[in-house]
Structures are given as C-alpha cells and as structure tokens.
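Worked problem 6 (solution included).
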Amino acid sequence: MDNVLQIFFILSCFLLPNINAQQNYSSNSVLDCDKKDETGPSPAFLYSCNSEYQSCGAFMIFRAQPPYDTVSTISKLTSADPSELARLNDISSFTEVLPTDKEVIVPVNCSCSGQYYQANTSFTIPSIYDTYFTIANDTFQGLSTCNILMRENIYSATNLYPGLILQVPLRCACPTSNQTVNSTKFLVTYLVTWGDNVPDISMRFNVSKESIAYANGFTGDDPTLYPFTTILIPLPSEPSSSQTIIHRPPPSDSSAIVPTVSHKGSRKWVYIWTGIGISLLVLCFAVSIVLLHYKKKKDKASQINGAGKKKQDLPEGLLVDIASVDQGLKFFGHEELKMATENFSTENKISGSVYRGLLEGKTVAIKQMNKSISKEVNLLKKINHFNLISLCGACEHQGRFYLVYDFMENGSLSDWLQNKRHPEFASWYYRFQIALDVAHGLHYLHNCTNSGYVHKDISSSNVLLDKDLRAKVANFSLARSAVWEQSGYSSVRGSFGTKGYMAPEYMEYGLVTCEMDTYAFGVIILELLTGKEAVYLQNGKEVLLAEAASSIMEGRNAEANLGCLIDPNLQAKNKMQHAARMIKLSLACTAEEPESRPSMAEVVSSLMKIQLDVQRSEPLFLARG
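Solution. The predicted structure is:
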C-alpha cells in the first residue's frame, strides 16, 4: 500500500497543471562558467522565479570554514541577521569559533530579481588567486555560481584583483502553491558534499524522499548527487540546530568531481571519474599559467606605454582630490561623458543635475557636482550592498566633478508613490519589499562598515527603484562617520536635510546619531502605507505625516482610525492586521526620544518576522499584484 501511495505521489507531481512548479537540479552544470540562459532560466545560474511568492523567508546551509567560522563572520559574508543566525543555531556568542565543517543555518530574505530568486550579499576579493569560480565554489561553497557572478558584475574574468567588491546573489527559493498545499512553508538550500544522498538527508530533516524529489525535479527518490551543488529541502517549519551535523573530511582525492551515489557502483566508474577530475585539474592549471602570463605581458605593456596614457585614465586633479580612494575606481574622460549623454542634452536629463547616459554599452546615471566629490567617493568605495546605490566611476573637468552610478529604471520612491498609474502601485508586496530593502541597506550602513555611517538625509527622494522595483538608498553627500562620544552622540551644528524626515533632536540640537536615520525610515514606512508625502497640505496648512499618524493612532479607537491612515488602494480587511503592525513599527521609529527608537537591526528583524508570520497565515499576501 505504501509503495502504491509513493508511486501516486510521484506521478501526481508530474501530472500537475503547472509543470514548471518545481525547480530543476543543476547537476554538474554549475561548474561550467560558460553556460547561457537566453532561452529561459537555467539551474546553472540560480533557482528560477516560478512561484506566486515573489519574496519569502528562506534558509541556507553553510559549513563553517576559517575564516568564516563564527556567527559574526558568517553573517557578514552572507548579509544575514546575526541575532537570528545565532538563535537558529543555538549559539550564545557571536565570536564563538565553530568546528570546521559544522553546518550552520543561515536565514535570508529571498526574492525575485528578474527571472531568478536570490538572496543578495557582497564580497571583497582578498587575493590575486581568486576567480569567479573559486569565489562561487570555495568561498560560498556552491551557494552562488560563477555564471551569475559574471552576470551581476561588470568586471571580466581576467580583470579581478584584491580589494574589488563583487555583488554576490545566493541560491534560494520560495515554495510553490503545490508545495504550500502539502504543508511546506520554507525551502532550505542544502550544500551537497561527498557521501550525501537523498534518503539520508530526508531522514535527517524528517521529510519524505518524494517531497525532496519533487522540489528538485528528480525522477526518482535516490538520484545521483554531485559535490559543489545544492538541493532544496522543503520543510513545514523552521530548521533547527538539531538537524545539523559536522561533516567528515572529504576523501583524499576530493579535488576530483566525483558523484555521490548511495547504491554500490562499479569500480570502473570511480576510475573514470577520478581520471576526469585529474584531467580537469591539469587543464585548469594550464589555463591559469596562460592567464598569468597574459596578465604579466599586459601589465608590462602598460608600463612601456608611458605616463601619458596613465594620466588620461587617472586625471591628476581628481587623484589629488581623492588621494585615499582605491585605485580600482573607474575614471572617465569628460568627452566620454559628453558622448554618453549627447552633450548633456535636456532629453537625457533625469532630474536636477543628473543625466542618463550610455557608457561601454551600459545605461548609467551621471551626476554633475560643483563641489569636491572626495567625501562621497571615499564613502561609496568603503560600502557595498545590494540595497545601496553602486558607484561605477568618476570624472573631473575644469573644476566640475561627475559621479557615475547604476541607472535605476523606476526613478525615486517619491515619484513612484505620486505617480499612481503604475500597475504595481496597489500591490502590498512591492511596498513591503521596498521597506525591507531600505531597512537592509541602512542596517548595513550602520553596522557592517568600519565605524559605521549615518546617512543623514534619508527620504523617499533618496530611495531609488530599479526595473524590478528593488530599492537602493542613494545620495550620500551628507553622510558622515558615526563617531560616538561619551554621551553616545556626535554633535554637528547646522541642520541640513529634508523637511518632514529630520529627527527632533537633529533639528533642535544638531545631534547626529544612527537613530536619526531610523526616524526618517519610520516616515518612509508611513509614506508607503498611506500614499501621502512626508509633508502634505491639509486645509491649506502644511502637515507633517509623522505627527499626523501619531495623533491619529493615539486616539480613542486606534483600530477604527487605522482605516483613515491606510492608502485606499491597499485597503483589504484580511490585510489590515499586518498594516497595523507596520504602523506600530513606524511610530516606534519616529518616537520623540532617540533612545526609544529601535536599531535598524531590530527593524529588519521585525519586518522579517512580519513577513514570516504573513507567509504562514496568508500564502498569497506577498504575491505580486
């Protein structure tokens, strides 16, 4: 009877109407860095975005390896919340060194970007020996792929060097409707290693072999698994530390790419695979020698060409102005920018002194400034995160300075909220995702950079949206290091910022703290939920949105008053409880006293908790549309 049920389950998976509801196992295709995906999503890149969930809480399994063997270092590598990571793994100290090859559960925010699901982080290249392949398969242990790294970064495979900061999308996925019906609430991205097989993994995580087979597109319940690849494990609840293990060291010939097969195989195939592995090593070694030789010749040729060309690439005036900037920054000539923007034509003006341009086949935003850019450039070279705008290059010409940024197709959040014609305007999913994106960016800015930074001018005009409506914080011209004195504050007289977003202590005393960014973020949440501007007119008078929201929610009947706040485009009875939690979070962020406001780490945790609770109770809440 059990066998009949198993056969029925497997057949039903393949006969379901949505045949693309499952992900496909990558096999060894992830080791081929020349894969293409023009005809559709490829598992050699990431997991395809094929579910009604466009964003969800997900988990990854990472194996502790020096130097990534503490909660602090692993969370920084993966851009995960360290508090959540410690809780899930039952670890009391962020600095406790974990045993080598100890499995660690990493919580991530997984969301669609184009045709793939991904959790985003960044990585600074540490040595001359790193390549896209080694970063994907050694540093990130197969949680990323060389193909997606080459897609997401503008640097060629032969032009990587120490200090370069890469964008790293990580492999994750959200449950499909078929999986949700079968009680799956979370997908865990599991790293395959030597000796792994589906029966053992299913027993350890207490899920059926059939559910794992369906999640990964396997035709049987005990397929061949390959090291350096990942599989998805569907779970009805969060994974726990009791399900993790410390792996045995790989076999001595582990450099060979040998499939792990649970049943007995012919010794002949072991020899064949070992031979293939050795051949690949020899080939890789030969290619490395050729590339190193080419690089040396290229460097020598650059030196022979003389200082004239060097001056053209690195303008002397600009180098003096930003002498401490990493020399990896791309410097453009003024003529290049004129050509890119059609001589800074009005047709290419985005707003103010920002122009759209086409440089090296890539659409960019070019910002013209009359003041020194050294401060902003130095900051932007120190920070790198998916939710912070990326600096592509710079230029100096006759006392004018130019910064070249990634182009954001949907403009500013302020413009998007005021232009109600966008089809995504009435979607809870997009507004929630934007709030989470901004929170992630600020959390990184405050906590994951040396000494931390305060943005000082967070506003919906300084939050930009890409083609997928993913948010990035921009305009760091007022940003400064968060220098803490004994009182816990850094004081700067003279308030500069945007009306409606400035915290009371900053306007009154000029006090600069990370909490002033938290205050402004609370206003942005209110803008997202109400559809109103931070300062709006009512009966001919200016009204501050934060003060109005606080007054409304302090009334006698807060629940009834909630309907007065929420944008009519978003109102729905089954969603108002979640909106109420968001409103309460925004009011906590805009508390009068800075000490009463949550940190951005706490804000991120709160938003992710709301997301997980919504995911458990209303699977379609965060679906697009």
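Discussion: The CA atoms of residues 212 and 233 lie 6 Å apart.
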